[in-house]
Q: What sequence folds into this?
């Protein structure tokens, strides 16, 4: 199957689950009746009926409340309201995906218009505070594409979430940390990096495929040296990217991370590089090969319960030698959408487990219970505190941000 066909198949899947099944333009009426009814809907209703007879499942045993769990992969977003400086491309604004994400945050465009983009950060903090397991989250800024003249290329930037916005908003809540984003092609990238360190950023976030960054580009070496000197980790997307309307996926090849790894940067390849291939080799296998060679390489388990990444989590967990380099990330707000439903894992969970997990209201608690049930060892959830050491970083007060 060629790349376009894979993309169409994935888009079809997301389209199917994120809109009303019978309104989906990909599916003809005949197909709805002949194909979907016997294969999906009837078995689903049968299972549902059986489960109603089984009764309400009990909570999983062995929870470890009281430990510090940091979600190190939590997204921020905005449409520019309240002077946030955030924006998304026209294409993304018109796509169904934006409404899908806003619903995940529990906001609407109208609410953002009224209260400003800061409402997204406020909702994130509130949801997190209600979590039984997750103590805090690193909220990620997102720099844009940098053009040949060294300025922000707004036309080719899919999503922009400035450091200033994330810093200012996270400073209001004691359960949120600042995750900065600096495109290394900015002429003042090193100054921005130093500034982010001073402001208490716990990491630098990139999505190379949409920010048009080549991690293997030797022009970035001074930036990597500065990161290494400050011991600030790089969280960088690896594997194919499907959350946006365009992506140069070859830039998210895990093998391109060898340059920062050799320079001593702590690198976290997001999503275990799930999905996609480079040089004919599966991205996740390429990443695992590197993890066996570089002790400063980590990966996170965010997004691995999504419907378009079925099977990747169990494959990853089979590699026992890298388990102590896995980190817990949720990829919020996607955990609050139907693409992460426990029903997606019907082949790996009992009906009792599915009903229990489905019944959990808090998105982080649901995510933790789902990942626990799928075999993620407990110390993966608690590892971030030791890696990021937030107590060692300066904590910028809200009042300082408003000076
Ligand atoms: Zn993400």
A:
């Amino acid at each position: 199957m060629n790349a376009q066909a894979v993309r169409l198949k994935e888009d079809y899947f997301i389209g199917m689950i994120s809109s009303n099944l019978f309104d989906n333009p990909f599916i003809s009426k005949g197909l709805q009746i002949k194909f979907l009814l016997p294969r999906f809907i009837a078995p689903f209703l049968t299972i549902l009926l059986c489960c109603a007879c089984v009764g309400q499942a009990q909570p999983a045993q062995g929870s470890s409340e009281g430990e510090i769990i940091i979600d190190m992969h939590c997204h921020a977003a905005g449409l520019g309201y309240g002077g946030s400086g955030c924006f998304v491309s026209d294409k993304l604004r018109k796509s169904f995906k934006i409404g899908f994400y806003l619903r995940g945050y529990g906001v609407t465009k109208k609410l953002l218009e009224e209260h400003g983009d800061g409402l997204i950060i406020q909702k994130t903090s509130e949801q997190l505070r209600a979590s039984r397991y997750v103590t805090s989250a690193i909220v990620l800024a997102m720099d844009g594409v940098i053009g040949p003249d060294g300025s922000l290329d707004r036309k080719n930037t899919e999503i922009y979430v400035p450091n200033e916005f994330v810093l200012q908003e996270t400073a209001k809540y004691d359960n949120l940390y600042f995750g900065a984003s600096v495109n290394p092609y900015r002429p003042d990238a090193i100054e921005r990096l130093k500034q982010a360190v001073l402001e208490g950023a716990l990491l630098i976030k990139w999505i190379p495929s949409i920010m048009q960054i080549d991690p293997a580009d030797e022009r970035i070496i001074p930036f990597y040296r500065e990161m290494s000197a400050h011991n600030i980790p790089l969280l960088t997307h690896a594997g194919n990217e499907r959350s946006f309307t365009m992506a140069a996926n070859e830039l998210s090849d895990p093998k391109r991370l060898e340059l920062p790894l050799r320079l001593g940067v702590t690198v976290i390849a997001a999503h275990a590089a799930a999905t996609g291939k480079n040089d004919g080799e599966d991205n996740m296998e390429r990443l695992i090969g590197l993890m066996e060679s570089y002790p400063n390489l980590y990966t996170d388990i965010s997004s691995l319960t999504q419907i378009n990444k079925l099977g990747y989590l169990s494959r990853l967990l089979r590699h026992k030698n890298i388990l102590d380099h896995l980190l817990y990330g949720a990829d919020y707000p996607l955990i609050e959408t139907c693409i992460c439903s426990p029903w997606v894992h019907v082949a790996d969970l009992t009906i009792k487990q599915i009903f229990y997990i489905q019944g959990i209201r808090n998105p982080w608690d649901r995510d933790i219970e789902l990942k626990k049930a799928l075999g993620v060892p407990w110390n993966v959830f608690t590892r971030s505190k030791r890696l990021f050491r937030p107590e060692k970083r300066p904590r910028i007060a809200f009042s300082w941000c408003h000076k």
In short: Residues 3-54 form one domain. The CA atoms of residues 67 and 207 lie 30 Å apart. The pocket of zinc ion is lined by residues 73, 75, 302, 331 (CB under 6 Å).
